[in-house]
Structures are given as C-alpha cells and as structure tokens.
Amino acid sequence: MTVAFWCVFIACLLPIVITWVCGYFRAKQFGKVDNKHPRLQYAQLEGPGARAYAAQQNAWEALPVFAAAVIIAHLAGVDPAKSALAAQVFIVARVLYPIFYIANKDVLRSLAFIIGLGACIALFVMAA
C-alpha cells in the first residue's frame, strides 16, 4: 500500500478519534453519555464540546474529497513521492484542525482547513 493510501486510512480514523473526544465533552457537560439519543445530546453541547462535534462533522465532510483526490492521482499515474507529500500535508493539517477548533483558535483552524484543501487541490492538479 502506498503512503498516500495509508494517509487515506488515517483520514478515515480521524472522525472516529474526534468522536471519542466528543464523548469526553458529553460526559463532562451532562454527567453521562446518552447512547440512546446521541444526536440530541450533541445538539445541546456548548463551548469546546460543540466545537469538537463541529470538527468531527467537518472531518467526515473532508474525507470523500481527500479519498477521491488520492485515488484519482493514483489512477492518473502521479509520482508516488509527490502524492505522498501532498497526502501527508493533508493529514498534518487535518490533525491540527480539530485541535485548533476545540481550542477556539479560529484563524489557525481556518489556516489548517485551507492547507488541507490545498493539498487535495494539488493532488487533482497533479493528476490533470
């Protein structure tokens, strides 16, 4: 498996890891995690918990774009070293994204988002 494909695997795990962080904030704010009605509980989160949930949703939203970019770059025969670099940049940006989001560092969060998006665009451009 290529480095870029491993990065897709890591990107698939990111929203799940952020879900665990959300569970921490749910337990902290409500005293327990309501597994029968989790979406209702998520909707009531405030502060860092609400931001963690938003970061989790964004991680799910970014995943198909990144996966498509990596697969298309691979199918187009992009140099694996170049696609690996772009994929690794995406992963670093997407790991930092929820950290900045939860910490309420909006400018850094937006910068991480733009860098991750730029990595996806770079993969598509290399494939063109």
What does this structure look like?
This protein has helices spanning 3-30, 38-44, 48-75, 80-102, 106-127. It is an all-alpha fold and 128 residues long. It starts with a helix and ends with a helix.
Descriptors for this entry?
5 helices, 128 residues, 0% strand
- Along the chain, the helix and strand elements come as HHHHH
What's the total helix number? Answer: 5
- Chain-averaged pLDDT: 97
- Shape label: elongated
Largest sheet: none
Straight-line distance between termini: 23 Å
What would you report as the Rg, rounded to the nearest angstrom? Answer: 16 Å
Identify low-pLDDT runs: none
Overall structural class, as computed from helix and strand content, comes to mainly alpha
In percent, how much strand structure appears in the residues?
A: under 5%
Helix content: over 70%
Number of strands: 0
